[in-house]
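As the next step, I selected for study one protein, both as residues and as discrete backbone shape codes, as given directly below:
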Amino acid sequence: MPWQSQRENLQILAIALLLALLIRVFIAEPRYIPSDSMMPTLDVGDRLVVEKVSYRFHSPHQGDIIVFDPPAQLQFQGYMADQAFIKRIIGEPGQIITVRGGIVYVDGEPLTEEYLAEPPKYELPPVLVPADQFFVMGDNRNNSNDSHVWGFLPKENIIGRAIFRFFPPERIGKISDKPNARSADSATVQR
């Protein structure tokens, strides 16, 4: 009889481990923020839930905060293929991205980016986002290794979308991922 009980416990444990693995691979996984490239939205040490399901039904959108595997350009710089990055999507396929005078422009329209640590201190000539690729940037623009440095992010590199912060306790909650799409002329920009 004791062997039967132990066998049942082992079966339950095996099923639980299998379910946990399936959830992590296909539905959601936890992630840790190791750098300050997404400040003030995300702090070093924040722990997030990254959901992996929604992009099977629709494409990523401007403003989504995504986790992705480094593209080839970053791997050539020495980053490991499994070293995940987190950035905000700024440009979708077919859009033209420009940075000038501390403002990011998408198709000639300035973005109001109330989530920035500070305006970018660099210029970027107009670039056209290719099909099936994205232009991503950190919210801490001047301290972010992002598309303005290494180029475009292929869609197939996207792991999922950051949706919820579960640590630290004082910052638990949904992650705001939609930038205010109003132009800089029509709204006060908080920087």
Notes: The longest helix spans residues 2-26.
